Amino acid sequence: MAQDIEHEKTAHGERAPSCTMVIFGAGGDLTKRLLMPALYNLARTGLLPDKFALVGVDRLDMSDASFQLHVEKAVREFAADKHYTQTLNEEQLERLVSCMTYMSLDFASADAYKLLGAKLADLKVTHQVGDHVMFYLAVGARFFGGIVDQLGQAGLVTENDSQWRRVVVEKPFGHDLESAQALNTQLRHSLAEKQIYRMDHFLGKETVQNIMLMRFANGIFEPLWNRDHIDHVQITVAETVAVENRAAFYESTGALRDMVPNHVFQLLALTAMEPPASLSADDVRNEKTKVLTSVHSVNPATDSVRAQYATGEREGKPLLGYKQEAGVAADSTTETYVAIKLGIDNWRWAGVPFYLRTGKALAKRNSEISIHFKRPPISLFRNTATESLTPNCLVIKLQPDEGASLSFGAKIPGPKIEIGQVHMDFHYKDYFQNAPSTGYETLIYDCMIGDATLFQRSDSVMAGWDIVKPVQVYWQQQGQNQLSTYAAGSDGPQASEDMLAQSGRSWRPLL
Ligand code: BG6
After folding, report:
1. Candidates 34, 35, 202, 402: which one to mutate for ligand 1, based on the most atoms within 8 Å of Cβ?
2. Is the peptide bond prior to 172 cis by the omega test (within 30 degrees of 0)?
3. Which single residue of 93, 324, 427, 441 has CA 20 to 30 Å from 433?
4. CB 4 within 8 A of CB 165
5. CA end-to-end span of the chain, whole Å?
């Protein structure tokens, strides 16, 4: 098993140290749409190393020149489109592209990794990039273990005091607790925990990082952030996109595995964690993991909802049902929506339900965390029953309109005492200029400078899978019986509303 070695740290905001990045899956969608625009944004903002080389690795045959052209096109299309607002910086783009080479490689061939080793040695000379290497596994999950085994056997992930070797592993990390543990054991044969950067791209989003800042850099929220004042919490990650061209992946994955143990639980952990002792990677990740390990066992029969979208419409336009999508089996039972109620057994949260929901083909793209406060104990106001007052609600909006909103009651002008709901709204865009970003910039840069705070540690991944395990087992046993439907373009299935209605609560509308 590899040893933990400490390397010199680069301060945040400084240029990353010279290194080579090797992307496995360089011909794939993730590389094209997100990694290349992110690298371009890092180059543009002066954070990419001065001396940098990138080796694109994939099974396709491609020359260096055609790979460079592929990258250039990707940056022009995706950085300029979604993640950039001004014209491209041609000089930076050219510089970035000129750092790139390509290697066609059979992921399972030991000889190919020897050639990769020789290539890295060449780049040290031609690009003067030194010995640090970051391997990025942008490939299907079934390849993760095999590639890391091969890297280990070829001696490519061995570290010493002046050489770091880091491996970024995309999600999904396993498909249940047992497979995640097995994958982790396999990776740990070749890598120390510190060398493994388990990616959850939600943690690269500015607004997700802001949850911790909002809670711990302000004095007004924390005193109320507990069971004495909070009635319940809702976490929503609603998407309008349907399965698109990902049926092959999605059919065997479904909404629970795709979104819950990773993205949604990261939001849960950031919302519910205790203040960390410091902002070091270990202190922050200790607190996040503690939350997940304090979640009490979910009763899937009453506290989970599993649903699939049927035909529907949005703005008058008809939408396909999941079973009609290309590549989806006509009798598919894969869920495209999941809702779960859970509780956290600790002093801060005992008795406060957390409701989580995520789904595709919904009415609105909307990711938010809403904190629903308790009602005041008595109503002082004539003819105004406490029950009829709408409780205060703090909504942290993650996407697409980043910001926060606090609702409270105010007197409606006039002779009668009547209370109306008002909102105090903060929109990010009113205060800060949005940095063009795919969300991957922060994470790639953090890996280069050796800051693992925004990456998942193995204990938190396992804690996530452990929470969903009873749900996975129950759904497996129930099969088709457990699957509700909802119209594409709607707010989700009735069963999800019913789950909250049992305790007199309701979801915030998506619209
Ligand atoms: C991915 C999931 O991890 O996250 C997708 O596999 C999902 O199914 C996506 O659509 C959501 O991320 P974002 O950044 O588009 O909100």
Report:
1. 202
2. yes
3. 93
4. no
5. 51
Q: Is 258 close to ligand 1, i.e. is its CB under 6 Å away?
A: yes
Tell me the HSE value of 253 on the side-chain side, using a 13 A CA sphere: 19
Q: What backbone phi and psi angles, to 5 degrees, belong to 472?
A: -60, -45
Q: How far apart are CA 320 and CA 293, in angstroms?
A: 39
Q: Which helix (H) or strand (E) holds 312?
A: strand 312-314
Distance CA 326, CA 172 (A): 23
39 and 47 in contact (C-beta within 8 Å)? Answer: no
Tokens 């008595």 appear where? Answer: 378
CB atoms within 10 A of CB 474: 16
| pLDDT tens digits along 60-107 | 999 999 999 999 999 998 886 555 556 788 999 999 999 999 999 999
pTM of the model: 0.94
Question: Where do the domains of the chain lie?
Answer: 19-199, 203-395+465-501
Distance 87 CA to ligand 1 centre (A): 27
Beta pairing, strands 304-310 & 366-373: unpaired
Cα distance between residue 55 and residue 78, in whole Å: 20
- Using CA atoms, how far apart are residues 195 and 177, in angstroms rounded to an integer? 21
Which range, of 83-87, 426-430, 443-447, averages the lowest pLDDT?
A: 83-87
| Ligand 1 and 239: CB distance under 6 A | yes
Cβ atoms of 133 and 162 within 8 Å: the answer is no
| pLDDT for the residue 65 | 97
d(CA 408, CA 422): 6
Nearest CA, atom 15, ligand 1:
239
Catalytic (active site) residue 263: yes
Matching CATH number, 203-395+465-501, of 3.30.360.10, 3.40.50.300, 3.40.190.10, 3.30.200.100:
3.30.360.10
Top-level CATH class of 19-199?
alpha beta
The residue to mutate among 173, 239, 244, having the most atoms of ligand 1 within 8 angstroms of its beta carbon, is 239
DSSP 409-423: EEEPSSSS--EEEEE
Cα 339 → chain centroid: 17
Backbone phi, then psi, for 436, in 5-degree steps?
-60, 125
Per-residue pLDDT, 313: 96
Give me the percent of the chain exceeding a pLDDT of 70.
Answer: 95
Q: Measure 259 CA to ligand 1 centroid, in angstroms.
A: 8
